[in-house]
Amino acid sequence: MTSSISESPLELQPYKSLANEELIARIQAVRDQLGPELLILGHHYQQDEVIAQSDLRGDSYLLSQSAADSTECRTIVFCGVHFMAETADILGNRPEKLAERDGQRVNVILPDMAAGCSMADMAAIDQIEDAWEQLGEVLDTEDLTPITYINSAATLKAFVGRHGGIVCTSSNARAAMDWAFERTSRVMFFPDQHLGRNTAIGMDITEGQMPIWNPYDADLGGNTEEQLQASRVILWQGHCSVHQVFKAQHVEMFREKHPGIKILVHPECPREVFELADISGSTGKILKEVESAPPGSKWAIGTELHLVNRLKEQHPEQEIYFLSPVVCMCATMYRIDLAHLCWVLENLAAGTLVNVIEVDEETAKWSLVALERMLEVR
Ligand code: 13P
Ligand code: SF4
Q: Which of 282, 328, 330, 371 best tests ligand 1's pocket when mutated (most atoms within 8 Å of CB)?
């Protein structure tokens, strides 16, 4: 990945002291000027003001698909986190798209380069390669399919592409696992142990068949040879710190206090919560469940705070609660604000690209193999 900054970009600092009304007007002016050449994508966890400026909002799967299908746009401004922008770059600039545009690239911009994902950071490519090599000493890696959650660096997606694997999102993890088990008898799933475990449990795979690989334990990730040989899914020791806050006792408390309440959670939640929940799914599914529920429905929702608060506001006819008493939001998603958005857009309008996310050719080529499989499997 490289970032390209032109010679004299407008400075970010002055934007930080502007009032929201002014930022909104200036963002709108750039949108009017660039028209369909500009596509602003917003993940459901973004703050309301940012979501209001997005042409399209969605979960990771839908946003990847939008980047893959984009036709008119020449710049995608991704209001989300780093791995999402990398994915948009790979899909939006894949060879067939470049050919359609006579070689012209779509520039993908991330308004704040510090908007990463702490879960994605829990698996580095050298750790994955080391684990694979160690696994090769005790298992047949030809009979092992790697699956990476989309919440991972492009280098991990490329690793997966090279080794016959697939990328999944929270909305197609089960289908990706089925896809993998049609090919091999074992799966290695990274970086989110919870999504991997919650998906595999639904396939009658037991906890005992799911050893956890600790990348900081140099000796088989903290496992014995026998444990790995008895495995069906090897889980990486990674998690989302936002979804980690939801506990079984919160579910019990809501059920006791609000009879009839439905517990709706993201599959990044720990198993104890996932198993007690009534419904689980991607952020897109969470949204659809609430939107299609009758007035008077009661929900306790276990996912990022901004999405839950927005649902509360948009559906006053329903009773909606955040599943945890502890306020917890995705701090990196929150880094994208109107000031950063306006700053990158005004630079763009002035012909200056700032915060460009560009995945190197070799990584993009192999990541694409695994991402195209993801888009085929639903
Ligand atoms: P979705 O694909 O469900 O939008 O999830 C993205 C994410 O980062 C959840 O923490
Ligand atoms: Fe990453 Fe968790 Fe934030 Fe999603 S909510 S982007 S998994 S840190």
A: 282
The CA 98 to ligand 2 mean position distance, Å, reads: 31
Residue 12 C-alpha to ligand 2 middle, in angstroms? Answer: 25
Give mean pLDDT, residues 204-209: 96
| Mutation test residue for ligand 2: of 265, 324, 332, 336, the one with most atoms within 8 Å of CB | 332
Q: In which band, very low, low, confident or very high, does the pLDDT at 7 lie, cut at 50, 70 and 90?
A: low
**Residue 137 near residue 228 (C-beta atoms within 8 A):** no
Q: Rounded to an integer, what distance in angstroms lies between the CA atom of residue 317 and that of residue 319?
A: 7
Q: Right CATH number for 120-236 from 3.30.160, 1.10.1060, 1.10.10, 3.40.50?
A: 3.40.50
Q: Quote the ligand 2 centre to 224 CA distance (angstroms).
A: 31
Instruction: Give domain limits for the chain.
Output: 13-115+333-359, 120-236, 243-322
Q: Looking at residue 97, what is its pLDDT?
A: 96
d(CA 213, CA 203): 20
- Of all protein residues, the one whose alpha carbon is nearest to atom 6 of ligand 2 is 117
What does the alpha-carbon distance between residue 329 and residue 146 come to, in Å, rounded to a whole number? 30
R_g of the chain computed on alpha carbons: 21
Answer whether the bond into residue 191 is a cis peptide, omega within 30°.
Answer: yes
Query: Which residue from 119, 144, 149 is spatially nearest to 131, judged by alpha carbons?
Result: 144
Fold classification of 13-115+333-359 is: Rossmann fold (3.40.50)
What's the CATH number for 243-322?
Answer: 3.40.50.10800
Residue 6 has pLDDT above 90, yes or no: no
